[in-house]
Each structure stands twice: as C-alpha cells, then as structure tokens.
Amino acid sequence: MTPPHQKHFHTSNPEEATAINRSLPEFAAAQTTDEDEYFANHQPPTYLPEIEEEVRGFVAFHQQTTGKRLALVTSGGTTVPLENNTVRFIDNFSAGTRGATSAEYFLENGYAVIFLHREFSLLPYSRHFSHSTNCFLDYMTERDNKIEIDPKYSAEMLKVYRKYNEAQDSNSLLLIPYTTVNQYLYTLKTISEALKIYQNKAVFYLAAAVSDFFIPQSRMPQHKIQSSATTDGELVIRLAAVPKFLSRLVDNWSLGAMIISFKLETDNNLLIKKAKSALERYHHQLVIGNLLQTRKKEVVFVSPGREEWIRLSDEEIANGKEIESEMIPAVIKHHDDWIQASK
C-alpha cells in the first residue's frame, strides 16, 4: 500500500462564516448533554472533512501495512478568539516543547504518530533549529559561491535529518494543525473516532494546553471590537467554561485506547492531589503531573494506586539529556501493561 500524500492545512486565519485559582474545585466533567450542546452550537472548521480523509488514510496504511502501534500526540496551546474575524485573542505560553519532543521519542520507539499541534508551534525534528536562539541562517556558511551547512553544526544536523527522513520515508508522522480551541475540539473528536479501529494499540498523549475558558460563537462579535465599545475606558469580556471533554473521550470517542492526560501546576502541594482527582473523575489510565518551575527536570506518573517520579540530575541536563527520553519508554511500558490487561 502506497503511503498517502500529506496535505498542508492552515488554521490561523479566521473563517468568515462563522490566571485560574487552582485551589478551587475543578469544573465538572462534561456529560453527553454538554457534548451535544457544544457541537450543536459551534460550527466545525470548513477543512474538517479533508482532515478526516488524511487521518483515515494514515490509520489504514499502518493497520494494513506496518502493524505499528499508533500515538496521537497533542501539542501547543489553543487560542480563544475575541472576534470572529480575529484581531485579538487570548493565548497561553505553551510553545509545544513537550509534545514535539515526545513525538520524536515515540517515533524512535517504533510508533506511528499523529501530531495534532498548534500551527507554527514546535514540530518534531525542526524544533532543534527553528526555535533556537540562533537565526536559521547562522547554521549556514558560504563556500565557492554556494551556501552549505557550517561544518561545526553538520554532524548534529545530519543526525536529526536522518531521523526526520526515516519518519517521512516510512510515512510514520502525520502533522495536523489547529489554532483555536474550537478547531482543537472538533479535530480531536474526528481523529479519535478514526482511531477506534486501532482499539488498545492506540495511545492518546494529550500534552496540549487547552484553554479553560472561551467565548461561545453566539456571543462573539463578527468584526474587530472598536475602542468606542468600551465602558469607562474598560473592555469587559464574559467567558464561558470550556466543557471538560476527557470523560467523553474515554467513554465515547475512543474505543479501548490508552489515554494519558497532563496536569501542570505551580503549587507542589496540589500536584498529586489534582492528578489523582483527574483519574477519579475521568477514569482514564495515566496522568503525568509536572510543576511549571521544574517541568524539564522532573515529572510524576500517577496511575491507579501508584506514583512514579522521573527525574534528571543537573549533570544530565547540562549534557543535553531530555526528560522525554525517559518519559516515553515509561509510557510504553504502561501501554504494554494496558494491552495485556485489555486482552
């Protein structure tokens, strides 16, 4: 079976038609009525049928040809537009580092990866160069009136290039973009339903930073908010809570897949408590907890009845080791156990 050609989608352009206190209780998990109400009142992205075609072709290729396990990795932050023809929006700080890095290690461990990412956030492999402190041209030099890779960078770039080519040649990496929280939710649902045929051989690695609040389409102005619309020099915006769809993903959208969510906190005293609370609420398999301040050097895996810390030493970090190189093999061990238990 020939690998399908991947299309490129742009999600950051608006469509014509259409600091939380973490000590407080979480919003209730979304029920069927919440799901039905959301999708009944919010328009899907116009390109969604093309995304579905791409994903189903990718899944069928690996199911019929390679037999690889499949990881859906979500990455980056979602935006909350303040106008339909968007000029202003609410965003978060996520650059997609964890998701892009983790996707590489899933690929190196034999998985095919659907990478659902914020458009223009970090991507697997290109992340090593596209978001560094150097301009990309700093990696180049001129010789004999031709441009080439500077020799001092060539060995590292060759290593990354070979891994990237291997992923491309084996059709093991599918890039699917989103920008807004609405695009993310619709695309996640579509991909999840396409992955049902993979059952327990699929793993959902939900590392995206999804907005907690949004403006429903029914309340969103069509055009740019004018300064004259302010009251006493203040712009007052009413936000609604984004329904918590993880329970629907577990119960309805996927079928037997292992589901991993992330919990980011800034208070160490809340981290384990919040992770355990998420497991009890959504009944999925694993929560990966991390603190904003130490997320690149330690994480905690919280599964039913178990806590497991993964930490890097200062020396390992200084030598360039990435914590995802330890996280993904640990995730795969959990996936092995899940497949065995599912039988």
UniProtKB/TrEMBL annotation:
A Pfam short name: DFP
Alphabetical list of SUPFAM superfamilies matching this protein: CoaB-like (SSF102645)
Cross-referenced InterPro entries: CoaB-like_sf, DNA/pantothenate-metab_flavo_C
Domain of life: Eukaryota
Residue ranges constituting the DNA/pantothenate metabolism flavoprotein C-terminal domain according to the UniProt record: 193-296
Family, as annotated: Belongs to the PPC synthetase family.
Name this protein carries in UniProt: DNA/pantothenate metabolism flavoprotein C-terminal domain-containing protein
